[in-house]
Amino acid sequence: MATTADDFLAPRAGRTLRALLSENGVLVLAAAYFLALLPFTPGLAGRTNLENLALTLLPLFVLATGQTLVLISGGIDLSVCSTVALASVLGALAMNDASGWFRGNPLAVPLGIAVMLAAGLLVGAANGLAVALLRMPPFIVTLTSMMFVSGFAVWLTQSKSINGLPPAFNALGARLPVALAIAGLAGVGTQWVLGCSIYGRWLYAVGRKAEVARVSGVPVTTVTWGAYVASGGFAAAAAVLYTGQAETGSPVLGQRLLLDVIAATVIGGTSLFGGRGKVHWTLFGVLFIKLIDNSLNLLNLSLSAVTLVKGGVILLAAWLDATRTRLGHGPI
Predict the structure, then answer these.
(1) Based on C-alpha coordinates, what's the Rg of the chain?
(2) Burial letters for 88-125: b for 16+ Cβ neighbours within 10 Å, e otherwise?
(3) pTM for this predicted structure
(4) Residue 179 belongs to a domain
(5) What is the pLDDT of residue 295?
């Protein structure tokens, strides 16, 4: 019997789909994209560009790590980027050398970072209380929180950026080894919690079926609340890196990051439906998203073109997630 085109293509299409659904599928996709763009993108593989890529990738990874925890719990946190902005301006108000609350204090940098982390944890705690204790929809809660926190950051600074941050603070985001250490600590610590702690097992159980987990003795309210608190804390940690790189506190810092955060997390393999996700999957997704950003910028494409491509990637992420859910498994 003669071999038809369908007979030839169908097995390859199946293997391609399985590769995309595999645990390392997005990493393979990122590598293929990098190699395909390499001949057409001068400087893509240059040392300076790769260092810049890493510096922009690390804070997004920290931000997406917090989102991973919330998505595993079956929720979503739309307020993370507004939390970045609020933590940024509060830290700048605390540390700037002109009118900072702690100016002249030798502990100005650690105190300023403490203010930033406290702001993130507070926003996360408020979100968690509304979702876990009051049983409000996560989308509505965090959308409202996003609007309120963003507006508060703008009001607090009268829409102005705050300069004059201590060089020691700026180095946290601008020096690759330091930023890598912060992001690595966040990633490794979170993966340990997910893979080795009772809280991690509870989190997956809550995301799969909250009521079943509750009947089984899992403290669903506490577990859900903890995911949102952690998300707020990670957003503040990302704000430390972003603010250090920008060398200024800004009420609009991170304004365009939300789609990147969600797309990177979901395309990596964490489910929008809850109960599934790993930190290294998120890292692969972040790498792919930032590689797209970086390469298209090097090609001097317009912002609208970059946004269109990212929209397609987000649609791909949603399709992959729905396909995994329909097939009844995560990345295989």
Answers:
(1) 21
(2) bbbbbbbbbeeebebeeeeebbebbbebbbebbbbbbb
(3) 0.88
(4) yes
(5) 86
